[in-house]
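Researcher: Here's my situation. A collaborator sent me these components and asked whether they could plausibly form a single complex. I don't have experimental data yet, so a predicted model of the whole assembly would be a useful starting point for our discussion.
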Amino acid sequence: MEKLSKEEVLHVARLARIAVSEDEIEKYQISLKQLLDDVEKIKDINDISEDVLVTPAFEGCKLRSDDEVDTTDFSKFKSNIPHSVGDFIEVPVMINE
Amino acid sequence: MSKYLDLSIRELHELLVSGKIKPKDLVLEAFDKLENSDLNAFITVCKDEALKRAEELENADKSSMLYGIPIAIKDNINTKGIRTTCASHMLENFVPFEDAFVIDKVNEAGMIIVGKTNMDEFAMGSTSQTSYFGAPKNPWDKTRIAGGSSGGSASVVAGLLAPIALGSDTGGSIRQPASYCGIVGMKPTYGRISRRGLIAFGSSLDQIGPMTKNVYDNALVLNSLVGYDEFDLTSSNREAEDFTRLIGEDIKGMKIAVPNYFISDIVDSEIKENVLSVCELLKENGATVDFIDIKHLEHAVTLYQIIAMGEASSNLARFDGVRFGYSADSNSVDELYAKTRAEGFGSEVKRRIMVGSYLLSGDNAKEYYTKALQVRNSMKESFDEAFKKYDLIIGPTTTTVAYHLGEGMDDVRKTFLDDVLVIPVNMAGLPGLNIPIGFNHEHMPIGLHIIGNRFEEAKMYKLGSFIEKELNLDLKVKEENHE
């Protein structure tokens, strides 16, 4: 069965910001290859439109006026933050990383 | 044993308005059934909230047709104060602080939320087996899938645990489980219902829609869900309309088309026979039925893989362990992102994000994504041409009936192929409706897919209701099947 190389799997995982274990790499070598083979078929499709259809919003996309408005109350938002200190979101040290 | 929940919304409305029953009676029956159900259709139930709401409604205005009716909500639709998991470990403990637009509408119409339904993780799948909480079961045969991704919602309605459920549909996720479970499911025109508060999967494809036991009920619920929302830039600002208004009208003179691809060899022969027999019924009643070609239907799965996976990789980038959701122990930001996403997402979601990220990276974006959008436009133009000549397009909703739990789990392509007949509707932004039209030799439901032109849902309900009345199927699952 054709499969991706280990390096190719690690490249794709890096793009997606997803850690993969050694055990998973072997599975992804096959399953990602199957899906990437499928999407290759797009290259063989002919008789297509010059224009693209990005989103089928037929009445156009309506933007709100560019005015200042109240944003979400931080105290409500805070309840779902995994790690916080006071009114700050806590993340790993980034300086000199 | 059903006392009230097997009745139509109209029948329940009469009982509620006359005072013969109270909203609390429906809520208590729903919880009596769902607490004893082994369908695994719910992720979270809201008994205390539902009973409180039922009491509040006792002295409220009863004029809404949906007053006091229990409803189940797919667990990717935000509900204030009620956890919303997307069937994922990533959001296992996420409690929204705002309601989605449709939840405001549900509340305005006087409905009572009884719980959040099971689904494929982040709506990615066609069987609901990618749920972190285990798969919901099909009430017609509990060894089979309920379909996906709105499998829990379909199971709830078919299992008579609630008369209404909301689903979401990115590539058939309302219509396909509706077909597998023998219920009515509508994916409205893109923009018809605001997506605000629906946790995004494929933003150019996602739509929320109603799932019900019959066509009239479905149209009633759609009436309550539509409306302009300034916080969804794709929301339609069309005036409200009554989607039940054409139900009961004669179908004589209606022009119906069936795409040849929809009745090709990819479809199981019993399903094909049922669809062709409906075509005969329509012709006998004065409609015309022609067989036509629509461009690129055979490429629907490839388009979906590129567009949906690309959009998913972008939408799900927000799950980084910082602001909400699961957060892995880590010593650096890079490690936080990678470990959180590795541990928080299931394998189907991770696979799709990885492929989507690859497709959108560097020159690939033009080679795959832009090309897919050109094919998509071409498919949409072909539908446009067809709707210049025809009122509606029909075909089977699925290529097979619901299959057994666990079947095909080792084939990563199967989940996409299951939706081959329903994906084109999302690509073109059209409305699609599933209605039950029969059973196969194992007594598993078969569905008909009715496709309308943009914003012509009322016409679809007219045809759907006519077929429903003529076929007069017994769509009630035997009680011992779902208790």
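Model: Some features of this prediction you could bring to your collaborator: Chain B touches chain A through 77 residues (CB under 8 Å). Chain B is about 35% helix and 15% strand.
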